[in-house]
Amino acid sequence: MRSLARAIDDMELPAVEKIAEESQEDPFEVLISTMLSAQTRDPVTAAASARLFKVARTPRTLARLTVKRIERLIYPVSFYRHKAKHVKETCRILVERFHGKVPAAMEELLTLPGVGRKTANLVLILSFKSLQNICVDTHVHRISNRLGWVATKTPDETEQALYKATDARWWPYINLYLVTWGQNVCRPVYPRCGECVIRAHCATGRALRS
Ligand code: SF4
Asked: Nearest-CA neighbor of 126 among 102, 150, 145, 149?
């Protein structure tokens, strides 16, 4: 993790981290942009979030937009029709049940439509500064398995296995480090093992060398 911290220092931040930084970790912007980011490339997520937040920056104002309008604002993120419905419904629930605020508890976040553990964990880490959560997306799942930290089949299994396999002081950073590494070096196909600074610590990298 220390090697990764140094290696990613001059790499671009993932889209949601950048949005979090620019919005002073606003929980609402982190929540909505994470919902938009699923299976969507970072530049598309960043542009869609910017268009949406220019029109509506709070649950109350966003809940007043029609689903069609939200669809047009967030297009071309993947599954934009589903996501538009989930975003509007989530905003309605935030207004009606949570006084227009994003809740800071996992159980409550998981009651929002379209919000799974990945999104909930990222909101808790980035906006509520939780030190108790690990956010596992497709990059974290893939790289943790390649490194040999875990041997798991799904992101949810990976999250639980990582709580046992890693030192708690790194939990809030695992997502940032591995997502950045996954976008730049340990890519889904053709990982750049030859120029990887953690190759000596990686089960896959070591196997390739032998
Ligand atoms: S050695 Fe290859 S598989 Fe292992 S972390 Fe580096 S890029 Fe990924």
From this structure: 102
For residue range 37-58, what is the model confidence (pLDDT) as tens digits?
Answer: 999 999 999 999 999 999 999 9
Ligand 1 within 6 A of 4 CB?
Answer: no
**Which residues are designated catalytic?**
118, 137
Q: What per-residue confidence (pLDDT) applies to 207? A: 86
Cα atoms in the Cβ-side hemisphere of radius 13 Å centred on 130: 18
Distance of CA 159 to the CA centre of its chain: 13
Residues 6+ apart with CB under 8 A from 177: 1, 4, 5, 8
Q: Which two tokens stand for residue 195?
A: 């120029």
Task: Locate the ligand 1 atom nearest the alpha carbon of residue 192 and give its number.
Answer: 7
- Measured CA distances, 180 to 17, 55, 132, 177, 202 (Å): 10, 29, 21, 5, 17
Average pLDDT over the chain, rounded to an integer = 96
* Contact (CB, 8 A) for 120 and 137: no
Handedness of CA 69, 75, 79, 83 (dihedral sign): negative
* Structure tokens that stand for 95 in this block: 């207004």
Would the CB of 145 count as within 6 Å of ligand 1? no
Cα Rg for the chain, rounded, in angstroms?
18
Q: If you measure from the C-alpha of residue 145 to the centroid of ligand 1, how many angstroms do you get, rounded to a whole number? A: 10
The pTM (predicted TM-score) of the whole model is 0.95
**How many angstroms separate the alpha carbon of residue 193 from the centre of ligand 1?**
5
What's the pLDDT at 123?
Answer: 98
